Amino acid sequence: MTALKPQITKSYAAGDYGYMVSLVERGSRFSYYILLLFALPMLFETEFVLTLWLKHYPEHTVNFVRLILIVTMCDILSNTLIILKAATGNVRNYQIVVGGMLLMNFPLSYFCLKVDFPPESTLVVALLVSIFCLILRLLFLRKIPGFSMKRYLCKVCGNVLIVTFISMILPLLLYKQMSDGIVRFFLICVLTTLCSSAAIYFVGCNKNEQMFIREKVTLIRRKIF
Fold it and tell me: What is the CA 34 to chain-centroid distance, rounded?
């Protein structure tokens, strides 16, 4: 994100909207993919990791950890959108609407707890608010030349959902078949990494991105060997 911010701002100021959109879309997708590689094993083996780390952990902790990871994965799709909106300089109405929606976390969470919903409901509220804020950001950005809300939902949101689903199939089968323990934890970590990497490469990347990855892998292999 640090590397992308000046490039997105510069391309918008220069009127290079095609390059700007590609940076926004790639930044969102690859940020999500990097997080997915680390989050997926944790989503499956939350209980084992917490037991290994704390031995005894409070009730609801497993659900809290999983929901926080999911909320983070949702939030990360908005990072480049926030950068793009800031580049326009026209942020007053955007901040009022999106910021106001984010503030709804507190009263909605309070209401859920008041009517005796479980503690996890506060993070479910956070997830729903995050999704709604993503949609609001897209609505504000749809007037920017070259930017398409429909394209973003398809090329970014749809893409990462498909990659996530494919990445989870084999690890989920293994998770259901084996009892918990160090062996399953190790196998889940290996399998999620392999499945996620394969899904990202073959489904999540276009031909140019695949070529770029192959070139980088070849360069690393040459330096090592």
Answer: 8
Q: What angle do CA 109, 111, 114 make, to 5 degrees?
A: 110
Nearest CA to 47 among 168, 187, 165, 182? 182
pTM more than 0.90: yes
Query: With contact defined as beta carbons under 8 Å apart, do 93 and 40 qualify?
Result: no
Cα separations in angstroms, 115 against 107, 108, 172, 199, 224: 12, 11, 34, 42, 60
Q: 66-116 pLDDT, tens per residue?
A: 999 999 999 999 999 999 999 998 899 999 999 999 999 999 999 999 999
Say how many residues make up the chain: 225
Per-residue pLDDT reduced to its tens digit, 55-77: 889 989 999 999 999 999 999 99
Taking the C-alpha atoms of residue 192 and residue 172, their distance in angstroms, rounded to an integer, is 9
Amino acid letter at 116?
A: D
CB 200 within 8 A of CB 40: no
Give Cβ neighbours of residue 149 (< 8 Å, ≥ 6 apart): 138, 139, 141, 142
CA atoms of 225 and 219, how far apart (whole Å): 10
Kindly report the number of other CB atoms within 10 A of residue 7's CB atom: 15
